[in-house]
């Protein structure tokens, strides 16, 4: 206690006063220590002459984990982050030069006893000087700003991420404040206009693009957007580049929903417009070509009809006169002469059949009753009546599923059924009893492996026979005009029947597939897209 060191000649009153002062001093010291220990900030006193800590408060101990003794024994290299050391040394040199009462601020990282670093914001001042007036003790008051630094880093990373996204955009993105000073300008803008971001940011937009002031559509869009409206211009010719653009004007708002500027997004439509123009020209060209083809088809159809009619007339006369000669002059004709006339009649019949088939084929593209609903059961009944004699002669078995009602051309369907059934009757081994089955199924697009599938649902009509079949390598050839796999003497015919079937399916936007095994039989699958 201070009173133990008092001089002997001191009055009791003076002793009492001194005792009271000592007590007050001690109470004041305890009060100050209590303030320091309960302070949320770290309070540290540094002896810069001996480069050591001489005091840290409870908050410092709690945050850093060191006691005063432990902290005093640490070197500054052990406390300050290596990347912050040079700035820290400069900071304390600046502090040492401060005048009394002046404060210097700095941010750096400090190592805790656990080994991790925390960010602190430090405010320092000269606390005590030596006899020469040089700074001796430095008082530092620091707050933990680790969370703040983490948030700033995250915000910075977010800003970089957003800027990267903006710069990666294929559209031009630019923004301006209410004074029309540029505040954002992405990479695509730099590429298109040749103006770097650092050259235009913060500068008046119209200094770079004065012609926009004269463009009423764009100025009105800007004004409306600054009034809080989002504006879309679907297509507009660009003033500064030879292109067509789609523009979006979006108001930018602050936390209080006040408009602070405008974001403009410019999407280049040039390629699309050029493609559309090319497509339009191509469509126009195709329409002209289609018209020419229609005219040509009509001319060919007319030619086929006239040719068939004009050729048919002399053929009929040849047939009539040949028959007449055979009947009236048969007694005077030699056996060879009679045989020759019979050959002529057979040739005339084949020619007549060929002309009829050519005429049927030419008429397929010009039939006008397409897209009407017809029952395929009725079509089958009609064909069975027409082929009744052939069915009876071969003792054929003809079975059929119940067939659907389709939008189709009835005359076309009649030709289709007639050709498949007559072929099944004709192309048989000698002595074989024809068995013909007609099946009906519905298939989804995923179930059909064919390039001409155009609808989700298809009706399939299949014609099965037990005839002579053929090698599958001829599956395409048999549908060509006048193509035959057998000699006329083996199986008579014109070689047009399957070509007619293929044409019928094409006019109905369908297709045919075929399966066949030589000596076993064939199956022809006809796929009709469901157009209901």
Polypeptide structure, described:
- The chain has helices spanning 12-38, 58-64, 68-73, 76-79, 85-96, 146-168, 187-193, 197-200, 205-208, 216-226, 270-328, 335-363, 376-386, 388-394, 410-426, 497-507, and strands at 42-47, 52-56, 104-111, 117-129, 135-144, 172-177, 182-185, 231-237, 244-253, 259-268, 372-375, 397-400, 405-408, 435-444, 457-465, 511-517, 521-529.
- The chain is 45% helix and 24% strand.
- It folds into 5 domains: 1-32; 39-144, Beta-Lactamase, CATH 3.30.450.20; 171-268, 2-Layer Sandwich (Beta-Lactamase); 280-363, Helix Hairpins (Orthogonal Bundle); 367-529, 2-Layer Sandwich (Heat Shock Protein 90).
- Mean pLDDT is 80; it is low at 1-7.
- With 532 residues, the protein is an alpha+beta fold.
- The longest helix has 59 residues, at 270-328.
Report a brief summary of the structure.
The protein has helices spanning about 10-40, 60-65, 70-75, 75-80, 85-95, 145-170, 185-195, 195-200, 205-210, 215-225, 270-330, 335-365, 375-385, 390-395, 410-425, 495-505; strands spanning about 40-45, 50-55, 105-110, 115-130, 135-145, 170-175, 180-185, 230-235, 245-255, 260-270, 370-375, 395-400, 405-410, 435-445, 455-465, 510-515, 520-530. The chain is of the alpha+beta class and about 525 residues long. Helix 13 packs across helix 15 (about 410-425).
């Amino acid at each position: 206690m201070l009173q133990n060191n008092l001089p002997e000649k001191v009055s009791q009153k003076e002793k009492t006063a001194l005792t009271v002062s000592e007590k007050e001093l001690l109470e004041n010291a305890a009060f100050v220590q209590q303030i320091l220990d309960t302070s949320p900030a770290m309070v540290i006193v540094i002896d810069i002459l001996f480069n050591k800590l001489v005091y840290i408060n409870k908050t410092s101990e709690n945050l850093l984990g060191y006691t005063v003794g432990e902290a005093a024994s640490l070197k500054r290299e052990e406390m300050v982050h290596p990347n912050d050391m040079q700035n820290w040394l400069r900071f304390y040199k600046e502090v040492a030069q401060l005048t009394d009462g002046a404060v210097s601020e700095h941010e750096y990282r400090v190592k805790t006893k656990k080994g991790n670093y925390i960010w602190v914001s430090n405010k320092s001042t000269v606390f005590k000087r030596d006899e020469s007036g040089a700074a001796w003790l430095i008082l530092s008051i620091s707050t933990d700003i680790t969370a703040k630094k983490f948030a700033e880093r995250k915000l910075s990373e977010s800003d970089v991420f957003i800027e990267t996204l903006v710069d990666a955009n294929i559209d031009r993105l630019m923004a301006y404040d209410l004074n029309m000073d540029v505040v954002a300008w992405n990479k695509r803008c730099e590429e298109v206009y040749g103006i770097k971001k650092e050259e235009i940011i913060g500068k008046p937009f119209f200094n770079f693009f004065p012609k926009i002031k004269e463009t009423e559509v764009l100025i009105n869009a800007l004004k409306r957007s600054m009034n809080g409206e989002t504006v879309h211009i679907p297509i507009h010719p660009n003033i500064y580049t030879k292109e067509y653009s789609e523009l979006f004007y979006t108001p930018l708002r602050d936390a209080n929903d006040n408009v602070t500027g405008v974001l403009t997004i410019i999407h280049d439509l040039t390629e699309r417009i050029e493609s559309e123009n090319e497509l339009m020209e191509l469509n126009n060209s195709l329409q002209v070509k289609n018209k020419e083809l229609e005219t040509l088809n009509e001319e060919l159809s007319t030619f086929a009809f006239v040719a068939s009619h004009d050729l048919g007339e002399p053929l009929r006369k040849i047939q009539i006169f040949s028959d007449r000669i055979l009947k009236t002059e048969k007694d005077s004709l030699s056996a060879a002469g009679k045989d020759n006339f019979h050959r002529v009649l057979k040739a005339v019949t084949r020619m007549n059949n060929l002309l009829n088939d050519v005429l049927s084929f030419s008429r397929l593209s010009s039939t006008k009753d397409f897209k009407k609903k017809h029952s395929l059961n009725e079509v089958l009944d009609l064909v069975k009546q027409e082929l009744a004699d052939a069915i009876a002669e071969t003792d054929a078995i003809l079975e059929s599923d119940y067939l659907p009602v389709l939008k189709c051309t009835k005359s076309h369907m009649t030709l289709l059924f007639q050709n498949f059934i007559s072929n099944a009757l004709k192309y048989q081994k000698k002595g074989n009893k024809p068995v013909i089955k007609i099946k009906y199924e519905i298939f989804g697009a995923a179930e059909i492996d064919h390039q001409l599938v155009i609808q989700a649902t298809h009706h399939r009509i299949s014609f099965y026979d037990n005839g002579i079949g053929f090698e599958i390598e001829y599956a395409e050839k048999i549908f060509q005009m006048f193509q035959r796999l057998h000699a006329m003497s083996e199986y008579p015919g014109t070689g047009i029947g399957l070509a007619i079937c293929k044409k019928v399916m094409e006019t109905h936007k369908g297709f045919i597939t075929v399966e066949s095994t030589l000596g076993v039989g064939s199956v022809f699958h006809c796929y009709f897209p469901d157009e209901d």
